[in-house]
């Protein structure tokens, strides 16, 4: 079941025509489908709910960095999501929508003292600690506040996730996590950290992973650590398997969240432990598109260009990772097709949304949809070239609401002094 479909050659998000939406809201605009978000979240939730009798409960922590719009966080909270955050700003957002602190895990290699204090005062579920120095500082900060900081150690299992190097995180040359042997030693020296309570273990080896092998290998490594600690009398309450499952941007066929979790649960079948996961892209990636308008077309001796009103400041993934996003016409037309690059107005040759795409030859004012843009789209956008950031819209059935209004020129200079 797809929620971005053509009806009479016009592209719809659920029951809202994107053409009509663009007329009301303008472009560029991120458009999200509530039904898709809900279905994707439930795919995780339902498998874990049925994990089996006697098993401790679970928590699906949406990775806020993928999309931090308040309306989306609120929807996911309502569906029962916890949250994986990486900054005080993300924590602030989750709390703004009434997120339960006891459903929040805090990841990241560079938490500041200020962030630790904020999160400790809010009583979050867990800090995913990524270095010994971070642990030492957290212990000191918690002591001063007369609190015990709940901690999970993020293990770096040195496993190749076979994805883009910028989003690989579980290899020993990456900045993330603590090698297994060192992590084991830290758990065993817990008495040196009187204001820390070790409650979990976690791991996240990369993003947009299309094969289950590396993920399952890392789960097996974590299981070994948990059993090893158990033998030494140290009981870990939760296992957090991170996020990272890939989505189809084009012709990829990644395992579904159901298949992924089924295999993970099989690996863990005799381990009675609370299970956490931190999906981002699989929840929101294919629930969103970037709606954009054609400004001009241009033919040169060597290339054709479609110049649109969104750019690398709106969606940086193609520029940064050479990422592929399908580009669909909002109105299908019978005109001849051509091969062109879809580019933005920014003054850099790296400013492109798609390269060498064969699609119909559009005219000025035609609308295009850059697909699979719900994750790491708006959340990585910027004001480069002093471009106000796009609007965001959440669609549900035949209704939509602007969940972030388009920035204005005034917004652009907010906080600046002459
Ligand atoms: N947990 C941790 C600790 C993470 O670092 C990440 C993503 C996630 C969970 C969620 O991963 P996901 O399920 O979304 O793959 N900007 C890049 C992706 C960066 C991912 C960073 N960490 C992109 O646009 O592809």
Topology overview:
Elements: E1 4-7, E2 10-13, E3 16-17, H1 18-25, E4 29-33, H2 34-49, E5 58-63, H3 70-79, E6 82-85, H4 88-96, E7 104-106, H5 113-121, E8 126-129, H6 132-144, E9 149-156, E10 178-179, H7 180-188, E11 196-202, H8 212-231, E12 238-240, H9 257-267, E13 274-277, H10 281-284, E14 288-299, E15 304-308, H11 317-321, E16 327-329, E17 337-343, E18 352-360, E19 367-370, E20 391-396, E21 399-404, H12 409-412
Parallel strand pairs: 4-20, 5-6, 5-13, 6-7, 7-8, 8-9, 9-10, 9-11, 11-12, 12-13, 15-17
Antiparallel strand pairs: 1-2, 2-3, 4-14, 14-15, 14-19, 16-19, 17-18, 20-21
Helix pairs in contact: 2-3, 2-9, 5-6, 8-9
Structural features, described:
- The chain folds into two domains: 4-33 and 285-412, Lyase, Ornithine Decarboxylase, Chain A, domain 1 (Beta Barrel), CATH 2.40.37.10; 34-281, TIM Barrel, CATH 3.20.20.
- The longest helix is centred in the middle third of the chain and has 20 residues, at 212-231.
- It is globular.
- Helices cover 28% and strands 26% of the residues.
- It is built from twelve helices and 21 strands.
- Helix 8 (212-231) runs parallel beside helix 9.
- The chain has 418 residues and is α/β, with parallel strands linked by helices.
- The termini are far apart.
- The structure holds ligand LLP.
- Ligand LLP is lined by residues 63, 66, 84, 107, 167, 204, 207-208, 242-244, 278-282, 317, 321, 375-376, 380.
């Amino acid at each position: 079941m797809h929620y971005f479909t053509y009806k009479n050659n016009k592209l719809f998000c659920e029951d809202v025509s994107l053409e009509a939406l663009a007329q009301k809201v303008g472009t560029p605009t991120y458009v999200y489908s509530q039904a898709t978000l809900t279905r994707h979240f439930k795919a995780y939730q339902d498998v874990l709910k049925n994990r089996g009798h006697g098993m401790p409960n679970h928590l699906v922590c949406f990775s806020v960095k993928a999309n931090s719009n308040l309306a989306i966080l609120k929807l996911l909270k309502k569906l029962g999501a916890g949250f994986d955050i990486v900054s005080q700003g993300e924590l602030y957002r989750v709390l703004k929508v009434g997120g339960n602190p006891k459903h929040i895990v805090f990841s990241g290699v560079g938490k500041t003292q200020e962030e630790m204090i904020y999160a400790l005062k809010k009583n979050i579920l867990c800090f995913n600690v990524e270095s010994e120095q971070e642990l030492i500082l957290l212990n000191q900060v918690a002591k001063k506040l007369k609190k015990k900081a709940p901690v999970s150690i993020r293990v770096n299992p040195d496993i190749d996730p076979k994805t883009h190097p910028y989003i690989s995180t579980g290899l020993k040359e990456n900045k993330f996590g603590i090698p297994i042997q060192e992590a084991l030693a830290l758990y065993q020296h817990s008495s040196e950290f009187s204001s820390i309570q070790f409650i979990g273990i976690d791991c996240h080896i990369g993003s947009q992973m299309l094969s289950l092998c590396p993920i399952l290998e890392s789960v097996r490594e974590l299981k070994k650590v948990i059993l090893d600690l158990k033998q030494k009398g140290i009981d870990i309450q939760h296992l957090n398997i991170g996020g990272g499952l890939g989505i189809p941007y084009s012709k990829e066929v990644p395992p579904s969240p159901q298949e992924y979790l089924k295999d993970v649960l099989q690996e863990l079948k005799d381990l009675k432990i609370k299970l956490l996961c931190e999906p981002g892209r699989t929840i929101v990636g294919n629930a969103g598109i970037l709606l954009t308008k054609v400004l001009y077309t241009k033919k040169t001796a060597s290339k054709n260009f479609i110049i649109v009103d969104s750019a690398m400041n709106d969606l940086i993934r193609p520029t940064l990772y050479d990422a592929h996003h399908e580009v669909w016409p909002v109105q299908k037309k019978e005109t001849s097709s051509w091969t062109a690059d879809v580019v933005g107005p920014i003054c850099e040759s790296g400013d492109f949304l798609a390269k060498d795409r064969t699609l119909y030859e559009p005219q000025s004012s035609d609308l295009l949809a850059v697909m699979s843009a719900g994750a790491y789209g708006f959340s990585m956008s910027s004001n480069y070239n002093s471009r106000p950031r796009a609007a965001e819209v959440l669609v549900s059935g035949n209704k939509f609401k602007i969940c972030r209004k388009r920035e204005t020129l005034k917004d652009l200079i907010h906080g600046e002094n002459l």
